[in-house]
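Q: Here's a chain of 135 amino acids. Please give me its 3D structure as tokens.
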Amino acid sequence: MSIYKHEAVIVTTSGNDVNAIMAFRDRMPTDLQECLVGPVHRANHFYSFALMPHGSGNGYTVSENMEIMIAAFINLLNNLDNVEWAHIVLFDEAALNAGGDPSPYIQASSGYEFDGEHWRKAKCRRNISLQTEGF
């Protein structure tokens, strides 16, 4: 039995890093490229992107491939100079099954860490622990 965990990575960057993010999308498998939306450019020379994974009905293989994409994307973002990002879990069935709250939460971010009570400015960017093998 699989566990549903719906996730997204939201990014804001200056124009300098847009090309690196676009190149990342070009390297993604063709059937997954539509999951990386953007750039959206509205004001102050900033651009936004969202990596919005598949629905849970797409199957285990697609789900595993998207986990690799999320990890690789966050690793890329951690190596860029002018990005702020947040890896958001939108629904977590494991938390629900454990009697917890399945509500959205920030799993990791570029600029802030949760100390158990408050969000604080991070001393360094967080690395994600997912495998990026194969990408």
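Q: Can you summarize the key feature?
A: The two ends are 27 Å apart (CA to CA).
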